[in-house]
């Protein structure tokens, strides 16, 4: 299996390199850490700016960037979820292995300690996904695992992840949990497809409502069939299974 990632020598990199990499090569890269000179205690007392400089040993984005630019509107697609658990439970690797069947790579970040685990999860996907799909999938997977453990900003498609680094006396953890690449369509099937018919000023008619079927081809059939019956001002969006619609004059068609 191959991953498509974009790599840079530092967070300040202006032009990122789009690389297609064998999964085994990527695993080899993240299974070893770079030891830095300071101790865990010294690192904890530093300013955020100094901490950022120390842990910046280069990094990657888990997908392809248009023109090699790491901006919000430059993510072409994502090939893996990369999620930071800043409030992880000490036994979360064992829980993930026990309760989930997808392939998952886990390594500790620079602030990690045995008492306060901080871990990074990399979950390869069975197909590339769009930025919008990425956010929906990442949030749903985090919700399954325990969303309170995750950094609130970790779902950004353009989010940089540093290569592993660890203080001189710090603990480094790496786990390779066996399984199949995560199927994006299976995750998306747990969302509700809502097709709205839009009025001139605001959303005023809920036209269609149903669960997405598991296969993407089935979703496209639903989309195409529905759009033929709607005007050009209509659109499809993916919402949670129990959408809460506030301050809209909504009538079910």
Q: Would you mind describing this structure in some detail?
A:
The chain has a domain at 26-54 and 77-190. The chain has helices at 23-30, 40-45, 48-55, 92-99, 131-145, 184-188, 216-227, and strands at residues 2-8, 17-22, 34-35, 59-61, 63-65, 75-85, 104-108, 119-129, 161-162, 165-166, 174-177, 192-198, 203-211, 235-239, 251-252. The termini are far apart. By secondary structure, it is α+β, with helices and mostly antiparallel strands. Mean pLDDT is 81; it is low at 193-253. The strands form 4 sheets. Strands 5-6-8-7-11 form a 5-stranded antiparallel β-sheet. The chain has a 4-stranded antiparallel β-sheet with strand order 2-1-4-9. A 4-stranded mixed β-sheet has the order 14-12-13-15, with helices on one face.
Helix/strand-derived category reads alpha+beta
Q: Please work out how many helical segments DSSP would assign.
A: 7
Quaternary structure state of the chains depicted: single chain
Most strands sheet: 5 strands, antiparallel
Order of strands, widest sheet: 5-6-8-7-11
H-E order: EEHEHHEEEHEEHEEEHEEHEE
Intertermini distance: 45 Å
Inertia-based shape: globular
Q: What's the pLDDT, averaged over the residues?
A: 81
C-alpha-based Rg, rounded: 21 Å
**How many strand units?**
15
Helix content: 10-25%
Unreliable runs, pLDDT <50, ≥5 residues? 193-253
Beta-strand level of the residues, as a percent range?
Answer: 25-35%
Give a quick rundown of the structure.
It is built from 7 helices and 15 strands. By secondary structure, it is of the alpha+beta class.
């Amino acid at each position: 299996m191959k991953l498509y990632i974009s790599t840079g020598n530092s967070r300040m990199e202006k032009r990122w390199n789009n690389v297609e990499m064998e999964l085994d090569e990527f695993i080899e890269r993240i299974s070893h850490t770079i030891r830095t000179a300071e101790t865990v205690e010294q690192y904890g007392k530093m300013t955020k700016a100094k901490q950022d400089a120390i842990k910046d040993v280069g990094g990657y984005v888990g997908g392809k960037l248009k023109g090699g630019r790491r901006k919000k509107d430059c993510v072409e697609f994502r090939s893996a979820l990369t999620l930071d658990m800043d409030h992880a439970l000490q036994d979360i690797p064992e829980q993930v292995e026990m309760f989930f069947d997808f392939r998952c790579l886990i390594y500790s970040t620079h602030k990690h300690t045995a008492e306060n685990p901080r871990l990074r999860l990399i979950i390869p996907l069975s197909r590339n996904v769009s930025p919008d799909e990425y956010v929906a999938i990442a949030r749903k997977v985090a919700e399954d695992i325990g969303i309170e453990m995750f950094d609130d900003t970790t779902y950004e498609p353009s989010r940089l992840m540093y290569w592993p680094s660890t203080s001189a006396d710090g603990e480094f953890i790496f786990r390779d949990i066996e399984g199949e690449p995560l199927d994006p369509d299976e995750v998306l099937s747990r969302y509700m497809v809502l097709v709205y018919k839009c009025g001139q000023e605001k959303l005023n008619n809920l036209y269609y409502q149903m669960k997405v079927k598991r296969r993407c081809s089935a979703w496209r059939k639903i989309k195409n069939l529905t759009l033929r019956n709607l005007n050009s001002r209509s659109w499809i969006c993916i919402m949670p299974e129990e959408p809460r619609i506030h301050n809209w004059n909504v009538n079910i068609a």
